[in-house]
User: What shape does this take?
Amino acid sequence: MNFIKNLLKTIAAGVVAVGILSVIFSFYYLQPAHIDNTEGNTDYVWVPSARWFKMTEGISWGRFDAKGYNNPEVVENPDIIVLGSSHTEATNVVQGKDFSSLLRDKLEGQYSVYNMGISGHNFLKVCHYLEQNLKKFDTPPKAVIIETSALTFSYEDVVTLLEGRTEKSPSYNTGLIAMSQKSPFFALMYNQVQGGLVDLLMPDKEKLMGIFAAEPVTPPLSYFHAATPVKLKPAMRKLLEVYQPLFDNLSALQQQYGTQIIIMLHPTGNLHADNSPVFIREDINIFFYNLCVEKGICFVDMTDTFRKNYETEHKLPHGFVTGKAGHGHLNSYGHAVIADALYDTIVKLSGEGRI
Assistant: This one.
């Protein structure tokens, strides 16, 4: 009998503790779980109209729109849609300070902008869903901006995309995980585990040593200036075999829907271990740029802009005071710089009659 009483007391104490911690953590991390996207144009979306408040990386707050994207409200038939990863989703900055919102403000009603960025959706994932996003509106958008922080993917990953075998990431919006995330305490715990705690405790040796691979996909790096053309290594020639049909597909969608594709690259990890600045323009950027020019796709490379701005303003586009400088998601400054570059690009393309 005493054992049962003690057990019940322990359970009751645990419930009270979780309740108290949940109240405390609601001022530190309050964000709903992803839910399946029934419209089929992304793996998942956020709970419609749900609010978030985060201090895990930066200090931010806002509210998702009725479709589950980071916008003040839904735009039914936008002129410009923005697709990308958690950098585009931008729940690490106050709503309205992301580059999609800033671009919308700078355009002053000339074009409407709708942010459809979702965490975990890298360049290949966006390409997988691109046609679904272009045809989901009554009128196809005049332009689509695709954000990416990397250009290099494995040959196998690109082949998987071209063959239509890209796997859908689970949303975990049902079962025990979904129930647990209704508590800010368990939601934060899940976020920490999902965000790399398991990798920290049980590191993958291949991931740690991958940078030292004998046959890297990209050619040698060039610092602080554009790389000169180099003779393609076997790995790059192999990658070219699948990048060509990938860009053929992008070009075909661009022509079919009359939508100008704009790919925006923002290199991440802007500080070395010794805190010296590094803004790398890889040789693959030139390779990527040439493919874009060939297919009429606009390529906005933020590398030089970030470098020049650091030289004059000594500000980094990624990272927050709550974390490691120069690493992590885009901060408010990075979003503002990107919005300026995209605005100039939109104006230029508009003047050329491409939008």
